[in-house]
Design goal:
By secondary structure, the chain is an alpha/beta fold. It has two domains: 129 residues, Aspartate Aminotransferase, domain 1; 233 residues, Type I PLP-dependent aspartate aminotransferase-like (Major domain) (Aspartate Aminotransferase, domain 2), CATH 3.40.640. 38% of the residues lie in helices and 14% in strands. It has a seven-stranded mixed beta sheet, sandwiched between helices. Strands 9-12-11 form a three-stranded antiparallel beta sheet. A two-stranded parallel ribbon has the order 1-10. Helix 3 runs parallel beside helix 11. The termini are far apart. It binds 4'-deoxy-4'-aminopyridoxal-5'-phosphate (PMP) and glutamine. The site of glutamine has 5 residues, from loops. The site of 4'-deoxy-4'-aminopyridoxal-5'-phosphate has 14 residues, from helix 4.
């Protein structure tokens, strides 16, 4: 039978590939982005509390009201913005799903979507599965800032949306308020939607601030802002996220969502809502910044090189150009097999598999894990010594 090809991505995702390789070779897994430390015990207890209290049936389609209210309060507190929990928040099974549902709610065959690369690997397959075309614009290395002239040139009459991501996976770059203003200038007289992937909003370092698209009055009306609890409460396996958008866009989003999964795991929603409503929530940025600094401190002793420390997210992009001239995927596989440390090759974030001899480390790990990884990497010699 002929199976239709819905998108252009080949094989399994790089995250699956590298995590499997790490497991196979018993390597320290600094590839796929997930913490290796426990979640708050209270959060685990609340899941049991939920099931014991009978929260075991379908949740309402947009999400449990108590969770949507907790999200709205959280945005009022952290960003001083008003979000209507009934008409503007939809709880989803993770942000990957929310991105797909947002695309599906607006795209038609023949539309174009601008994607800034390097980019998270689900964007382009999501766009193509909807019959639309990804128009790629490269971020400017080594700072991975946006060249707004290039974005301007990529806009055509068919451009339906632009997807942006700050703090950025894989580079750790963070948008300034001026970036949002520039984007607003470009889309002002158009019907272009914005998908704003802000899953790392609470992982931001060195006193920098996250500006959400929701703070930008002009852009907010045309934007889907997408979030993931996994990055905040260290429970990536729960796969719970949410979309915040205007009432009109939320209606469009829910038209898709209600027939895609209808509703999201009830006990987990209950636990998250109770956890968020009880007392002080942990500040994740400072804890993650310490991990970044510890990682960078140990990295200095190696022949790896960084162009700039990650300003946000839990990833550090690193050049291995003085260690090896292998292509990055080959290098990442070799490092996993021969040195016992798994990373992600940055070419995986480019549709043309551009290879700049860069790999991504995830530093959302216990200090002892990071230390063990560098004990293994200490055996690496610079290329000149080989
Ligand atoms: N966007 C980016 C940039 C990510 O790194 C991730 C992490 N998986 C997601 C979206 C998806 O988050 P989730 O695990 O909630 O689907
Ligand atoms: N967001 C995670 C990362 O970039 C991976 C998620 C996934 O495995 N799809 O590593």
């Amino acid at each position: 039978m002929m199976l239709p090809r819905k998108h252009s991505a080949e094989g399994t995702t790089i995250f699956t590939t590298m995590s499997a390789l790490a497991q196979q070779h018993n390597a320290i897994n600094l590839s796929q982005g997930f913490p290796d430390f426990s979640i708050d015990e209270r959060l685990s207890e609340l899941v049991f509390e939920a099931t014991n209290n009978g929260f075991n049936q379908y949740a309402p389609m947009p999400g449990l009201p108590i969770l949507r209210e907790a999200i709205a309060k959280d945005f009022a507190k952290r960003y001083n913005i008003e979000v209507n929990p009934d008409t503007e928040v939809t709880v989803t099974p993770g942000a990957t799903y929310a991105i797909y549902a947002a695309f599906t709610s607006i795209l038609q065959a023949g539309d174009e979507v601008i994607v800034l690369e390097p980019a998270y690997d689900s964007y382009i397959p999501n766009i193509e599965t909807n019959g639309a075309k990804a128009v790629v614009v490269s971020l400017t290395a080594p700072s991975f800032t946006v060249d707004w002239n290039k974005v301007n040139h990529a806009i055509t009459a068919r451009t339906k949306a632009i997807i942006v991501n700050t703090p950025h996976n894989p580079t750790g770059a963070v948008w300034t308020k001026e970036d949002w203003d520039k984007l607003a200038d470009l889309v002002r007289d158009t019907e272009i939607f914005i998908l704003s992937d802000e899953v790392y909003e609470q992982l931001i370092f060195d006193g920098k601030q996250h500006y959400t698209v929701l703070q930008h009055e002009e852009l907010r009306k045309r934007s889907f802002a997408l979030y993931s609890f996994g990055k905040v409460f260290h429970n990536t396996g729960w796969k719970i996220g949410y979309c915040i958008s205007s009432p009109e866009l939320t209606q469009a989003f829910r038209r898709i969502h209600q027939f895609l999964c209808f509703s999201v795991n009830t006990p987990a929603q209950y636990a998250l809502a109770s956890y968020m409503s009880q007392g002080q929530l942990p500040v994740v940025s400072s804890m993650m910044q310490q991990k970044r600094d510890f990682f960078l401190h140990l990295l200095k002793e190696t022949d790896f090189f960084i162009h700039q420390p990650a300003c946000g997210s839990y990833f550090q992009t690193v050049s291995y150009a003085s260690v090896s001239d292998k292509p990055d995927f080959e290098f990442a596989q070799w490092l996993t097999k021969e040195y016992g440390v798994a990373t992600i090759p940055i070419s995986a974030f480019y549709s043309n598999k551009k290879d700049d001899k860069l790999i991504r480390f995830c530093f959302a790990k216990k200090e002892e894990t990071i230390k063990q990884a560098f004990e293994k990497l200490a055996r690496l010699k610079p290329m000149a010594a080989l």
